[in-house]
Amino acid sequence: MSNSSRPLRPGDPHELDGYRVLGRLGRGGMGTVYLAESPTGARVALKLIHPDLAEDGAFRARFAREVAAARRVARFSTAAVVDARMEGEVLFIASEYVPGPTLAAAVRADGPMRGGTLESLAVGVAAALTAVHRSGIVHRDLKPSNVLLSPVGPKVIDFGIARALDEAGDGITRSHQLIGTPSYMAPELIAGQSPTPAGDVFSWGCLIAFAGTGGAPFDAATVPGVLHNISHAAPRLDGLDPALRETVTAALGKDPLSRPSSQELLDRLVGRADPAEEYIARSISVAWPATVSEGTAPEPAAPEGAAPEAALPQATGLEPAAPERTAAETAAPQATGPEAAAPEPVRTPSETRTGSSAGGRRRLLVVACAGAAVLLSAAALVLVLLDRDGLPDDTATVYEYDFENDPDWPDLGLYHPGNSNESGYWATESGIMLVRDPEVHDTAGAAVWAPPLENAIPERLMARTDAHVISGYGQARYGIACWERYGPQDAAVLSMTYKVLVNFDGERAVIQRWSNEDESWEDMVSGPAAQDHEPFPALRGEEGTEVTNALAFACEYVETEDGSPTVELSAWVNERLVAHAVDDRLPAEAADTATSVRQFGLVMAAGPVGQHVGILFEDFVLEEILTG
To answer: Which candidate in 52, 141, 219, 241 is catalytic?
Structure first.
């Protein structure tokens, strides 16, 4: 298997229409991308479309038109489409496999670009946009992770696919909803206008600013802050090569009519009135430094090198107690009460914390908009999840974090590898890092908590995350927690915390319970041993291999036929149900008392052996379960 891909997960295909699937390259809003080998032995990037999109007739028609248009785009600076299946139950696109890191990974690893390298990147991406726009396509998601640095020049990938998604029919995207990556989204899209090539030019300006400075020009600590800056603030271009500053500034104009076209960008960059494609391709090839080897991974999926040196945050009261703690250390979340915080105001650049993300794993975000006022609405988007072997298939998104930016959760600090004693947000890897170093800490676990839900709290909720093991051993555990309080803080009927913990080695999953009445953790159910199942194979990995797992945890308030209150708890690992429990010990008063606060978080607990433990959480999604 190529060292540029991740291992396949349970349920991934091993063969598709003659293509031998070798590993995972990534995933996005439309599907999963695999490294595959064609019947002729050529390696390709195979994007498998999500089944729920593939079932939509309008999407299929638009998808077919976009694939046909993509095939007309000049191949010199894109990953050419070599095959596609547009009929049948499974849709896919096979594109030229481009060995080389993404721009996001290269800047993270080597720092900002300078001189001729940066100018060649600017020319190459502008040339790709010109070719795309001439084919009648609007990219809509140009960003560092969608630019591959091949040995002969930059290659733009995923062009036109977001546009196919935009016109796919009910439930995929509707009026006043946007699809894109916030840090690279044009202001007119935030204001609710239709996408045009001018939006791609704006994204080009953001991308070149990122490449030349190491940060996106409108970044902030939160997504609303980013969108505010894009709409109202001047770009931050400190450190950008002066030779490109004027062109980038023009591309970042707030008014789309004031921006140059992609062709005009090329005219400025190469100094010709109407450069031919052959000239552009030749100039890119000559100027581009041959620094990318054939074996370079498209994007590192995990930090390289030794295990990071880091530590737990200071005790906050938001940190759930672990069984191994002393009585003095065993504090439930409500001991200091995770207070119901009011929404933070939109932050300007001067108000944000340092260390916000300069790139990394990004996902398409759906943002509900009304004019220029951006509302991140709870349960704003209703969607049908993929068929996931028991996961609820009808849910509504309450909120979603891809950790592209610091989520600014309560008491969440910043993680700095090699120079930190705190867990926190890891900007360079776009994730939340929880660690325990036995030489520094006497606590056995760590937790961070997402913003609480207070008003009209859904009774059936499910949280999901993708977790990546950085360092650990067999008995260390990580997972998701749910805390809830019945009644007001000064007169609470009951306060409960539930959590699912999964062993690093895959031997065991456990659901635990804590209440303000018992003030101790207890195991409600554990598996797979208790359920006579085999260990989770995807959780296993030989030393040095990358192991990433998808976790889901549902907490559902349900009344029995006689009106007694219960909480049903279910846990899934890699789309497989691993544990289920019912808490029927709630006092009768709970049935008559509304849940005043509910809060979900990410947790990690160390085992008895004194070794360093580290887990990177790549995203966090909270959904209301509607049916099923």
So the answer is: 141
